[in-house]
Amino acid sequence: MTRHLHLNAFLMSTGHHEASWRLPESNPVANTDVAHYQNLARIAERGKFDSVFFADSPQLIGDIGRRPAGALEPTVLLTAIAAATSRIGLIATASTTYNDPYNLARRFASVDHVSGGRAGWNVVTTAGPEAAKNFNLADQPAHAERYDRAAEFLEVAYKLWDSWEDDATLADKESGIWGDDAKVQPIEHVGRHFQVHGALNLPRSPQGHPLIVQAGSSEDGKGLAARYAEAVFTAQQTLEDAQAFYSDLKARTAALGRDPSTLKILPGIVPVIADTEAEALRLERELDDLIKPEYARRQLAKTLRVKPEDLPLDQQLPSDLPDEDEIEGAKSRYTLIVTLARREKLTVRQLIGRLGGGRGHRTFSGTPEQVADAIQEWFDAGAADGFNIMPAVLPSGLEVFTDHVVPILQARDLFRADYTGTTLRDHYGLARPAGRTKSLQEAVS
Amino acid sequence: MTRHLHLNAFLMSTGHHEASWRLPESNPVANTDVAHYQNLARIAERGKFDSVFFADSPQLIGDIGRRPAGALEPTVLLTAIAAATSRIGLIATASTTYNDPYNLARRFASVDHVSGGRAGWNVVTTAGPEAAKNFNLADQPAHAERYDRAAEFLEVAYKLWDSWEDDATLADKESGIWGDDAKVQPIEHVGRHFQVHGALNLPRSPQGHPLIVQAGSSEDGKGLAARYAEAVFTAQQTLEDAQAFYSDLKARTAALGRDPSTLKILPGIVPVIADTEAEALRLERELDDLIKPEYARRQLAKTLRVKPEDLPLDQQLPSDLPDEDEIEGAKSRYTLIVTLARREKLTVRQLIGRLGGGRGHRTFSGTPEQVADAIQEWFDAGAADGFNIMPAVLPSGLEVFTDHVVPILQARDLFRADYTGTTLRDHYGLARPAGRTKSLQEAVS
User: Fold this and answer.
1) Model's pTM, two decimal places?
2) Where is the Luciferase-like domain (chains A, B) (predicted)?
């Protein structure tokens, strides 16, 4: 069977370019407009994408002045999208640092139920002290501590999702017995971070477990991904870096006894697409010219742990920046930005332009053929199992990709002509996890 | 202007009678079927109900064998219903004991955004040790402590909902300024239970604040309701008790300086409706005969803090039960059950029948005219501002109420002929809360 790409549509208000909201075509309050997102998901479903995805953090990020700020809570948003679509997968980000496993496991299982098996959870540990301050803490727990909690959080979630066997519901009207007590068991979890008695207050969901997604590329993040993730979103600027990341993560997965093909790696790409390359580059420049550098510089300074005035716009980055080891926040993104700036000898102004397009993700401007070529190159070269498509402008960038790039990928037999299954796991070619009893039976057989 | 009733449809799987799932007409797995609930909400909207409502607790309650167990998380469920309706209000229960205010305030604000201003939150403190054990605790916090936390939780939620002023979003494409920094402020809350920096990561929602609902009738519960609630759901068995509760709660509300008309009191009623009274009573008996007493007795024993074998089915309750003061759980429900059993000299078997219909709520079997009379009597006698309609069987009981009782109430000009507003606050006749600046201006003027 031909190996097929997986495509995820990463949706964000008016698009991933920070100035996209300023375009005449954009609805600048799309960030709270559920109809906008329902429309985007229908476009992606028309394009047979595996899934749509929302980033999230339980904090108000960045400058209110700069770009659309604030977002609908992703599980609520995905539920509204579920009602407007029928096949496409629905992936929400949620933090293991600032949630309780009982509530969150139930919420994702609920989305899985209402969507008929289309839910996925992007597991994040949430970098930065700002979020901690919304949850009774003065500062964030240390990076390693957050990842330790995340691993235990996932173990608890698995136990809760499996606390009902698939056939626990009898619904026997004649005898008057609704459920089989023996097939719904407390989990009695006692760990370092959590004590959770269970069982979950919801029958097992269509997928058994929602799809587990991971997007952190630090050492701790790769460790978590190798163990638990079924799809990984990652920011990679060059083919070589992407190949190295891909083979590293697949090897880590195999080393843990997992079949590496059960983990799909999807680098991000911010395509700016037009009929000609010149027109695409013009559109990209138009967007970059709409960036207000003072906001972007303030954000960059925060990421780099320096003062904005230490970053003159027309000079390169200062040479005395901290090492990744000293960063307790988004470690891999920090290194990616510094490496990008140093490798290409970018001034702060140039770096801001590059980051304004995709916040560290790869940007690519060209014709539909060129975008398809760029995707195929990485796919064929062992750098990707698919792509996290991050249109610079929404909805137009997603429409162009769906109507002009997808048909090329389909014509090359790189991408599905139609959905063949009904669940998100079906789309990603992943098995439905066996329930508790079956797992136990397999363990002793 | 004529005073109108408010009607809320309390939805629960196949109906409020515990044996309703055993009827031939019932879908016994309706508890996880989103289409079932979307259909119910459309029926209630056809009947011009103010709202639909879901009870909830973060624990698996009761015997799996007894009745449909487990439920979709209510904010997810309401979002799915929002997509299938356009006017009816959407009220979800959520616990202040087992949630964080930042996450929960955002989730309700998100439901308010996606529904165009139709969200309500039934604030509960969650009785019982079982829930605590799902959240790292060995036992529940004491009753008074839970209510103290609930009050602070609500104060934090108000601050978060008001952390964006209504006009904070400028969306000025020309100048490139999206939001007005001065109109989005951290809340910097520091209290006994919570430290929350804010601001919320979501612009102010259509209603400003989701409608606040309360359903506990203990002393602490009435105190919380008088201070914060805009609608109160309550279980009252007799007109005299309901009148006493009504005037007590309205007086407490006035004593706090609130206009008592801004708090709507809705006793629960479990109507069993048929063309003749005899037929309604036959249907009620048919349902009661489907109850399996061993499950119900086990549940009753738990509520009363005794062993099941201390409750012989054909004897009255033992005389040496604990006082309400000793109960750390659902205090008022405990007292209601004991009072009902003693007042009517019910055997355990008879008590189980009464509770099987409505778990302590008033049951009423009769013709549509008789049900309308029963509603009007309490409404006219100062016992209710409306009713929490709890059909014994769903969807049929809601259909009958909508098609046969609502028209009688409308003909008597006791209930709206159509919606006149678009938000849940509109339906309940409640003002949209002013934002932060306006509140400050009012405070100094």
Assistant:
1) 0.94
2) 26-383
